[in-house]
């Protein structure tokens, strides 16, 4: 499957579109100017259209940045990612922010590097919320001035949220997924614009949060949610951590059997009553 990564120096067009047979949970998103963001309809789980149907909006920041970190840091990060995540994907910080539209209201991508990236997300992609999954040390590693980006968000009307999780750590992701999905689901329900979910590379934590949201709130099983996202943005999020977080929410009893004792594919799907229980428990985490 061919990814779409568009920079000032590189533009690859995807040859495929997301799955079209998933249950639609709400109405289409209107493309409005930033000044009229309050007129957005509430939206939820409609799979995004192909690039041609969205009039070329499914792109990444056209203003790439020159990496101040150098190739050494990218090599170090990619080596760790390949070893810990056991996937072949790489992050190229020097090419600038990259992302993909997953649902009509949900974008998954890499870290914004500068205020101009924030401007781009607001003006070109109608983003009204940013959910940042990075720890402080992740941002510092790449020499990014996070406060500068947060300040820019405030200036142009983007709600910036943080739900840090440790990179390359399935246990941290498992424990952090419910609160992260809680923030994502709240932003979607607010319906004032698109939600941009990012970690560092947009290949592990961010897609995992998006997949968990689709699994728990969009009436998809885990494999359908996983394929929906990875067919658009090739990446390797930790499916086991999503299954484990699902188990924790659905079977939150002190006498439950340890997740590690369950069959390999347990909790790749859930019963309607389990989904309702998970939704209630995730929504109860709002504001925590």
UniProtKB/TrEMBL annotation:
Family matches, as Gene3D superfamilies: Protein tyrosine phosphatase superfamily
Organism in which the protein naturally occurs: Papaver somniferum (Opium poppy)
Gene Ontology biological process terms from the UniProt entry: starch catabolic process
MF terms in GO: phosphoprotein phosphatase activity; starch binding; sugar-phosphatase activity
One annotated Gene Ontology cellular component of this protein: chloroplast
Pfam families the record matches: DSPc
Protein name listed in UniProt: Tyrosine specific protein phosphatases domain-containing protein
CDD domains, per database record: DSP_laforin-like
Region spans: Disordered: 48-75
UniProt key word Hydrolase: yes
PANTHER family assigned to the protein according to its UniProt record, in alphabetical order: DUAL SPECIFICITY PHOSPHATASE, SUBGROUP, CATALYTIC DOMAIN (PTHR46642), PHOSPHOGLUCAN PHOSPHATASE LSF2, CHLOROPLASTIC (PTHR46642:SF2)
SUPFAM superfamilies according to UniProt: (Phosphotyrosine protein) phosphatases II
Transmembrane segments: none
